[in-house]
Amino acid sequence: MITCRSSKRSSSKPAFTLVELLVSIVIIGIIGGMVSQALTGANQQAKRNRAEAYINQLNLMVMQMYEEESRRIPFAPVSLRQNTLDDARASKSRSLAILNWQRDYLRCVFPGQPLDLRRPPIDVGYPAYRDTGLRPVRIDPLEDSSTLSAWNAALYENSLRHVARVKYQRRVEALVGQKAGIAGLSFNACVDGDLNNGEWTTEHEGAECLYLILASNLFNGSPGIDALKSDDLGDTDDDGVPEVLDPWGRPVGFARWAPGYFLRQNWEPDSSLTSLTDEELHLLKGDLAKDPIDLLLSDPRYAGVTGIPNFQADDPFPLVPIVVSAGSDGVFDMVGFDAPLNPAIDYANTPLSSMPADTGTLTFPAGLRFVDPYLLGVAVNDQFGAVRDTDEQGFDNSGDNVLPSLPIR
C-alpha cells in the first residue's frame, strides 16, 4: 500500500511581525541619531578646544613682536634751535614728538587694513624752542623748519617706518600680481579699486594683515607662518592675499588697536556702555593703568583742565593687538570685525591741533598729524572692537567667540 505524504510542513520558528520590524527601525534610527549628535558635539568641542589654544598661540606670537617693537625710539640728525618756550614745556613737546613717532611706527609695523600701508610715515614735529636765557638748546631727535621742528619722513627713505611699510607692500604686490597674472604690479594698483588689474580688497582685511605680519617677520628664528598648519591659511575672498583661518575654516579677526574691546565691563551688558558716566569710565580706565608706551604721560589727553566734564575720562590706557575667532556661528558681533568700517579709520591723518592741550602751553600747526589709537570723540560702544549687535539682528552673537584667555596687556 502506497502512502502519500503531504509536502506542506508547518514551521515552529518565530518570525518578526511588520510592527516589530518598524519599531526596531525606529529605535535603531534614534540610537544612530544620538550617536551622530554625540560625535558632532565631540567634533565641535574638539574644534573649540583647538581654537582656544590656537588663538592663544597667535596672540602670544603677536604680543612677543609688539613688546619688542614698542620699545623702539626715533633717531634723526641733531639740530640747534631757539625759541621762547621754557625748558619744561620744551621737554614736553619733545616727548610728545617721540610718542607720536612710536605710535606711527607701530602703525607701519602692525598694519590692520590696506589704508595703513597706503599712508606713508607721517612728518613728526613739535614747536622749536629756546630757554629764557636765549641759550641754544639741543633739539633731538626731530628737526625740519625754523618755526616747527619736525622729522620729514619723506626725506628718510631708509627709516624704520618706511622699511616696515615697503616690506608688506612688496609682498602684496607679488601675491595680487600672481593672482591677476600681471608681472610688476605696483602697490597703488593693488589698492586703487580697479578689479580689472588685480585688487587687494578690504574684505577680511584683519586676517590678511595678520598673514602679512606672520609671513614677513621672524619669530624665534623662523617666519611666523611656519608655526601654522596648511589648513590655517586660505584665500576665502579670492583676492590673492591669504587670510589666517580659525579651526572652522573662517578668517580670524585681528586688530592692532581695539579700544572698545578693552573697555568692556564684566558686570553689565556691553550694549549699555553708551550710558557710562565720565566717572565710571575713569574708574574703568583706572583698572587698566596707563599706556606703557607713553612713560612720560605726553599724550595731550592727560593735559585736561579741571572742570571739563570729560577730565580724565579720556585718559589713554594700554592697547595691544588682539586676535579672536568668531566661533562656530562665524559672527563676531564686534565693531570693525564682521565687516570693514566705512569709512576706514585713517590713523595717520588726525590733526594734532584738534587734540586737547593746556591752554597756552603747546600750539601746533593744522597740518601736523597725530596717530591716535583711542579715536577721540567716538562713543564707547562705537569704538573699534566694542561688543554689540553689529548686524542688528536683535540678539548678541558674540557669546561663542573665542577670545584670548591669557593676559595680553
From TrEMBL:
<feature type="transmembrane region" description="Helical">
    <location>
        <begin position="15"/>
        <end position="35"/>
    </location>
</feature>
<dbReference type="InterPro" id="IPR012902">
    <property type="entry name" value="N_methyl_site"/>
</dbReference>
<dbReference type="InterPro" id="IPR045584">
    <property type="entry name" value="Pilin-like"/>
</dbReference>
<keyword id="KW-0472">Membrane</keyword>
<protein>
    <recommendedName>
        <fullName>Type II secretion system protein G</fullName>
    </recommendedName>
</protein>
<dbReference type="Pfam" id="PF07963">
    <property type="entry name" value="N_methyl"/>
</dbReference>
<keyword id="KW-0812">Transmembrane</keyword>
<keyword id="KW-1133">Transmembrane helix</keyword>
